[in-house]
Design a protein that fits this description.
The complex is a heterodimer of chains A (about 850) and B (about 230). Chain A is of the alpha+beta class. Chain A has 26 helices and 22 strands. In chain A, helix 8 packs antiparallel against helix 12, helix 13 packs antiparallel against helix 23 and helix 22 packs antiparallel against helix 26. The two termini of chain A are about 30 Å apart. Classes of the chains: A alpha+beta (about 850), B alpha/beta (about 230). At the A-B interface, helix 1, helix 9 and helix 10 of A face helix 2, helix 3 and helix 4 of B.
Chain lengths: ~850, ~230
């Protein structure tokens, strides 16, 4: 008979006896969780990505100061990418003897590829979302254009030589950039009218945005193909690098999703290892008999191997189905928060769930299973003969490799993989030593305690190797749960800290120095709480240590764009809030002029070091300064941030304006009109809509990761129960013998509670050490969040560990206490 | 003196200078020393001796369940001592049947499935028919679907007997087959064992404490401290 048929028969016979329940349950948890999370994360990431793409109006954008070569566009067509393009440029508009510097945006047919525009037909009409720009011959404008040029809807507007009819008011533009100094009232027109307008001449200052939408793989390939060909005036943007305020949140959330998947796999892995161990131990005698009946070692391996493959296949298939329903349920719970268009589930995620199930099974079940191969046929005569343990190296090596594979797969982040594995491994080693230490300490206590305590302690000490294994397994499960909980809490706190309830939602730019005190007073009178007023001088970085910057930066580096435009330069006496010095020192009062503090990422990209000489051109003058410090700052705070801060006095004599940000509630919006009237030169940038969008995304992410956390915790507790159950055989047998010898039920209950309570307590204590080490590494090296130990958890974890293991142990051993001991012994 | 080849043809089992030692904390312990044994096909032989005299070790060596420290064993012409474990497994599957004191039935299988198992292992398609017939022969046709837990000790040993004979083994090893049974049930089992042995012309090697049982065998050997006396 083939191995497969025999394996199938034996498996069916085993199923009848209930031997497989625990193992199947553990596998199902693994596959269900990994499929659900994989599907959920995949859909959520794509939904979020699509939403973030709305900020770009596309999945990928090439910004350029000139048109793109024709073969680039052909290549995009080859990759089946949808394309659109916009051209933005300033143009003076004159109507009714009024003049206005307008920001013109000519949009092509497919614009916007992602997101939408909001328009109205009149002041009072309801806003309407549309997914197209104005048609040929028409223009859509911001309301400010009408008031400034004394126009109304339906009036003609001349853009260069082309007469356009104003048909709509634009109230929301999906990809409006917060570019402070090009911020001028928008006039949107159709690309087809551009040539007739004649406004674009050779040498005109135009920003071209070539937008693409399509399959992520094709986009990646396209991006990879195009990147080396970009010239210095061209830049690629996608959702991760264009909007730093969202990019950070998204990538952290993605990492959390990855972390949750790993946590669940780890938890399930522990469950599978524990239940397979129990399964193999229960099959030693059967295996010995099979060997005695003539089965070779290889046959034994095939026999059980097939059984596990069949089990894995069944559990994985069912788990995938269940996982699909779970993620549907998660999306259903989140439906109020998510955009109406949710990305559809990807079959590759389901397939991955299936593969995960099989791989986790292989990695965690094979080592204990291999022990069966070692069973001697002589065991039929000598029951006490136990097969050798599979090599420790193999057991941990396989599990370790599997975890490494999954971490890398989920995060595609070498830093996170190395951090988690490295710190986990070190902590595990320390953990093992600490458990041995604790057990030795307990051994010394045994002679001095009461009978029930002695039995309870001896239960742990009798097979100290098994106890260490159990404590490790409980600890890993608890650590996984703690990681899930703590990282989630920190992420949410971090987002809330960055975007508090009254985060600044407006910027005021171009405030002239002579108007600044009056402007500030006006704001205070209106009860508006503004951030600091920063003086701003526009200047361009031209040389670093006398070498032109273009020679220093690589074409595709982030710093490259900073060298092609004017930067906002400021000076400050004190280090601004949320800025941190990472190298050098902030200047002391009275220190000399001619110093600058540079933002960390820019410094890295431009290879700027402390004490370097930087040369700027401001207007027609050149100025040299020395780098005194490097700063890190939070880009996603919505407060004015600066790449370059100079020491006081350095920028004296250069023309400057002031910049500030403030929070203005919706109800107080009319204050803006007064401000604009009083200070016509000042530009008010309203970012409240963008901010609202960011907040919505963060709220969605928070909810999503909350559900993931509950899911991980649920999986964790189920596994903890399964793991305790998997260790009960010996304890039940001993309990039954003790009862036959006359032990009372209450005594046995107490013994079990002491034993399990202590196991859980030790696991809890070790969890604190292990999780703090891993959290420290994760926060410092991967998530870039400030780490501080959570002392509340230090008290809670041992309690939770002790309680859950005790409850599981108590439930599992209840039958010893309640049934006749003879029945129990017969059933074993 | 007979040559090795002649012996192998005439005898089913040829054991020469068989020894088994194990390492203990107090040094080397000799469990069996220099045992010579010849067993003819169809012969029945009892191995008797005190507890710890090496009976079970001897039977485990003869059946190829364990390897000797020194000496050779030929079973049906095959030198077990030069074979690896997988080679010995193949010999066991083809030639050997076992009955144990502790029955060694698989608790999750029914009586019928337990008896079918060795046939299934060798790929016999008629496993069910043969197993049912043999279970009827041992008087358990009404217990086919019962698991070992639902059977009495005597019934369990009858299932074990059926399982041992279902492959029509050339040689049957029985290790204290009545050790776990009361005398009345034990006697019934032994009757059945000898009947089946006769019907199948099987060579029987029996380990026992029981002199009466030993006397039913054609030959008895006694072990004392690992030596034949």
């Amino acid at each position: 008979m083939s191995h497969f048929n025999l394996a199938l028969r034996l498996l069916l016979r085993d199923r009848r006896s209930g031997e497989l329940t625990l193992l199947l349950l553990a596998l199902m948890i693994a596959v269900t969780s990994s499929t659900a999370i994989s599907l959920f994360a995949d859909r959520l990431q794509r939904t979020m990505g699509e939403q973030a793409a709305e900020f770009l109006a596309a999945d990928l954008v090439i910004a350029s100061s000139e048109g793109l070569p024709a073969h680039w566009l052909e290549k995009a067509t080859e990759w089946h990418l949808d394309q659109a393009q916009t051209k933005e440029f300033p143009s003076v508009l004159i109507e009714n003897e009024e003049m206005l510097l307008g920001s013109i945006k000519a949009v092509s047919e497919n614009y916007p590829l992602r997101g939408y525009l909001k328009i109205t037909d009149s002041d009072y009409a309801q806003e309407k979302s549309v997914q197209n720009g104005p048609g040929p011959g028409t223009a859509w404008v911001e309301k400010r254009v009408l008031s400034a040029l004394k126009l109304k809807l339906g009036d003609p507007l001349m853009v260069g030589d082309k007469k356009l009819i104003i048909t709509r008011l634009i109230t929301y533009e999906t990809d409006k950039r917060g570019d402070f100094y090009s911020f001028a009232p928008r006039v949107m027109m159709n690309d087809a009218d551009l040539q007739a307008s004649g406004v674009l001449q050779p040498g005109s200052h135009v920003h071209y945005y070539f937008q693409y939408r399509g399959d992520p793989k094709a986009l990646t390939e396209f991006k990879r193909w195009i990147k080396p060909q970009l010239n210095p005036s061209q830049r690629i943007m996608d959702i991760h690098d264009d909007r730093p305020e969202l990019g950070g949140a998204l990538s952290r959330a993605e990492r959390y999703l990855g972390l949750s998947s790993i946590v669940v796999i780890l938890i399930a892995g522990v469950a599978i290892a524990m239940t397979t161990r129990r399964y193999t131990e229960r099959h030693f005698n059967a295996t010995a008999l099979l060997r005695c009946l003539g089965l070779k070692r290889r046959d034994i391996l095939w026999l059980y191997g097939w059984q596990f493959i069949i089990l894995g296949f069944l559990a994985s298939s069912f788990g995938c189905l269940l996982g699909w329903f779970v993620q549907q349920a998660l999306f259903h719970l989140l439906r109020g928060l998510l955009p109406q268009q949710v990305a559809s589930p990807g079959w590759s995620a389901v397939l991955f769930g299936f593969i995960t199930g099989m791989a986790v099974l292989l990695a965690f079940a094979l080592p204990p299973l291999l022990r069966l191969k070692q069973v001697s046929p002589l065991k039929v005569l000598r029951r006490e003969l136990e097969p050798l343990d599979t090599g420790t190296g193999l057991v941990y090596g396989m599990a370790f490799s599997a975890i490494a594979f999954f971490i890398e797969r989920y995060t595609q982040d070498f830093a996170m993989t190395a951090t988690l594995l490295g710190s986990g491994l070190i902590a595990l080693l320390v953990l093992g030593l600490m458990i041995y230490g604790l057990l030795r300490l307990i051994a010394k206590l045994v002679p001095h305690v009461s009978l029930s305590w002695r039995f309870g302690l001896q239960g742990i000490l009798r097979n100290s190797k098994a106890s260490v294994g159990q404590i490790m397994a409980f600890s890993i499960t608890l650590v996984a749960m703690v990681l899930s909980f703590t990282v989630r809490t920190s992420l949410v706190d971090d987002w809330q800290k960055h975007l508090p309830e009254k985060a600044p939602n407006h910027f005021a730019l171009n405030i002239f120095p002579e108007q600044q005190p009056a402007f500030k007073k006006e704001m205070i009178q209106n009860g508006i709480d503004s951030s600091q007023f920063y003086p701003v001088v526009r200047g361009r970085l031209v040389k670093i240590n006398n070498i032109p910057v273009q020679q220093i930066v690589s074409k595709d580096s982030q710093g490259e764009s900073a060298t092609h435009r004017e930067l906002s330069l400021t000076w400050a006496k004190d280090l601004p809030e949320e800025n941190k010095i990472t190298a050098g020192k902030w200047w002391q009062e009275g220190q000399q002029r001619g110093l600058v503090s540079v933002e960390q990422k820019l410094a890295k990209n431009l290879k700027i070091n402390l004490h370097d000489q930087l040369s700027f051109t401001i207007g027609s003058q050149q100025m040299n300064v020395t780098v005194a410090s490097i700063r890190s700052l939070e880009w996603d705070t919505m407060k004015p941030n600066f790449y370059m801060i100079f020491s006081p006095g350095t920028l004296d004599g250069y023309p400057s304006t002031f910049l500030t940000s403030f929070y203005l509630p919706e109800a107080q919006k009319n204050v803006l009109n007064d401000l604009v009237k009083k200070y016509p030169g000042t530009t008010i940038l309203e970012v409240d809509r963008i901010l609202k969008q960011v907040k919505t995304v963060l709220l969605q992410l928070t909810k999503a990761i909350n559900y993931l956390l509950y899911f991980s915790l649920m999986a964790g507790f189920s596994v903890l129960f399964a793991a305790v159950y998997a260790t009960l055989d010996h304890r039940i047998q001993e309990g039954a013998v003790l009862r036959m010898l006359g032990a009372k039920r209450a005594f046995l209950r107490k013994v079990h509670l002491i034993e399990f309570g202590l196991l859980g307590l030790m696991a809890g204590l070790l969890t604190i050490v292990l999780s703090e080490v891993m959290l420290y590494s994760l926060y410092t090296h991967v998530m870039h969040i400030d780490y501080s130990p959570n002392y509340g958890l230090w008290l809670l974890i041992p309690f939770v560990g002790s309680l859950s293991v005790s409850v599981a142990g108590y439930c599992g051993t209840r039958q010893v206490v309640n049934k006749s001991p003879l029945t129990v012994l017969r059933e074993l | 003196m007979q040559s090795q080849t002649d012996k192998a043809v005439e005898y089913l089992i040829v054991a020469e200078r068989l020894s088994k030692s194990v390492m203990t904390s107090e040094g080397i312990l000799d469990i069996l020393s220099s045992i010579d044994l010849l067993i003819k096909p169809g012969e029945s032989m009892a191995i008797v001796g005190e507890s710890g005299s090496g009976k079970s070790t001897l039977i485990s060596l003869l059946a190829g369940l364990d390897t000797p420290s020194a000496g050779t064993i030929r079973l049906n012409g095959n030198d077990l001592t030069v074979m690896d474990e997988d080679g010995r497994a193949a010999i066991r599957n083809a030639l050997v049947g076992f009955v144990f004191q502790s029955f060694q039935l698989l608790p999750t299988l029914t009586a019928l499935e337990n008896v079918m198992l060795p046939l299934e292992l060798s790929g016999d398609k008629d496993a069910k028919i043969a197993a049912t017939a043999l279970l009827s022969r041992v008087g358990l046709s009404h217990r086919l679907t019962h698991t070992p837990r639902q059977l009495s000790g005597g019934e369990q040993q009858r299932v074990a007997l059926a399982r041992a004979f279902v492959t029509r083994p050339v040689i049957l090893f029985a290790d204290e087959p009545t050790g776990n049974l009361d005398s009345k049930t034990g006697a019934i089992i032994i009757d059945l064992l000898f009947q089946l042995n006769l019907e199948n012309n099987t060579t029987l090697i029996l380990v026992t404490h029981d002199q009466v049982l030993a006397s039913r065998c054609q030959r008895t050997i006694r072990l004392e401290s690992g030596k034949l006396v």
